[in-house]
Amino acid sequence: MAVPVPLGTEDRTARLTLRRPDAWRREDAPQADLRLTGDDVVLTVRSRPSDRTIAEEHTSLLERLPGSVEGLLLVGVDVWTAAGAPARLVEYVRPDEDGAVAGAHLVFVTGRHRVDLTVERPLARMLATDDLVFAVLDTVRATEPTAARPHRDLEPLPDAPAAAELDGPRLTAEAVSTLRSLAGRRWNPGLLRSPAGRELIDAGLVGRLGTLPEPTQSLLGPWAEETQPTTLEQRLPDGGESRLQAWDGTVVDGTDDQVVAAVPPEQVVALMAGRLGIRPVWTFPFRTGSVRADLVARRLDGGDTAPDLPSDLAEGDPRLARFWTAPWTVSHLRRPGAQLPVTIVHAEGHGFARVGRTEAGATTFSADAPANVFRSVVRAVLGA
């Protein structure tokens, strides 16, 4: 991992040590053991007595976080091994009055204490600060002797919340096309007599004399410049299809009947994350890095019968075999200007995989953590 800034300063509390950039400032925080700020990052350390296991503390954290802030989205969890004590890393995004905030919450236990280290920064700066944030997290070390605990299976994780529905007028595809044709142009009185025009009037998007209310003008703004949208197209396990298109502030959801709404880009990120089914999932790599291209293509296309993996591959990689036979949601995420979409598979009960390039008749097919999938959404929508 490339470290953009040397981590030249060591900070210490009664429970941990860490290294951070010299330019970060140490601030007074009465309710915290340590608070550091710099590079749009806020790092806070707290600790309290606890004799619970890391599984118990992690489960408690996952139960508490979503209720702590309305709209908070859990985007990933991981077993953290660098701290010298049993630890978990939880990533989340929460709304804030100044814009969405991306957080990484490292929790570890020593048998006598629980230590919580949170790192927060603006969602728009998430990708730009990732290397620095994780470089600092990699330096965190527990200073208290850690009691040995018997090994146990990983703790169960919460289910994903229901995907949010887009709130706005529902229109036919013809009406949406007519609405888009108004961007940067004057109302054509002839449209009043068309079914699509009357539909726009009935939905309140156009006045009966052809006037455009201010909310409609806001919807039309991104279309006037003929910019390309960020698009999420999905094939669902039942064979259904969905499409979500997002311009800067305007979203169209659907294929036949379509919902049109004004949605800020950071809320588009949350909307797409919900459609993808992003939630905490334990992620383990497949033993196999690629699969025959024809099998992957047929599996992605769906149909009544999914092709089986070759028996030797299924026997040698049971994790891939379980993923392959589970119900799939296949998502194609395309950002403006990109030649090819990012193709992501969500297998029900088994997490995510990313479909990569095809070379010499084999297609790269690798397990992917939900937090990485979320970063793909951030990159596509915010361009960060």
What is the secondary structure topology, with strand pairs?
Blueprint: E1 9-12, E2 16-20, E3 25-26, E4 34-38, E5 41-49, H1 54-68, E6 73-80, E7 87-94, E8 101-109, E9 113-122, H2 126-138, E10 141-142, E11 170-171, H3 173-181, H4 195-202, H5 214-224, E12 230-235, E13 241-246, E14 250-253, E15 258-262, H6 265-276, E16 290-292, H7 293-301, H8 311-316, H9 318-325, E17 328-334, E18 342-347, E19 351-359, E20 362-368, H10 370-382
Helix pairs in contact: 3-4, 6-10
Overview of this structure, please?
By secondary structure, the protein is of the alpha+beta class. The protein has a domain at 9-142: 3-Layer(aba) Sandwich (Protein Transport Mog1p, Chain A). Helix content is 27%, strand content 30%. It has 10 helices and 20 strands. It has helices at 54-68, 126-138, 173-181, 195-202, 214-224, 265-276, 293-301, 311-316, 318-325, 370-382; strands spanning 9-12, 16-20, 25-26, 34-38, 41-49, 73-80, 87-94, 101-109, 113-122, 141-142, 170-171, 230-235, 241-246, 250-253, 258-262, 290-292, 328-334, 342-347, 351-359, 362-368. A 10-stranded antiparallel β-sheet has the order 11-15-14-13-12-17-18-19-20-16. It has a 7-stranded antiparallel β-sheet with strand order 3-4-5-9-8-7-6, sandwiched between helices. The protein has a 3-stranded antiparallel β-sheet with strand order 1-2-10. Strand 3 (25-26) and strand 4 form a beta hairpin. Helix 3 (173-181) crosses helix 4 (195-202) and helix 6 (265-276) runs antiparallel to helix 10 (370-382). The radius of gyration is 24 Å and the shape is globular. The protein starts with 8 loop residues before the first strand and ends with a helix. The model has no long low-confidence stretch (mean pLDDT 93).
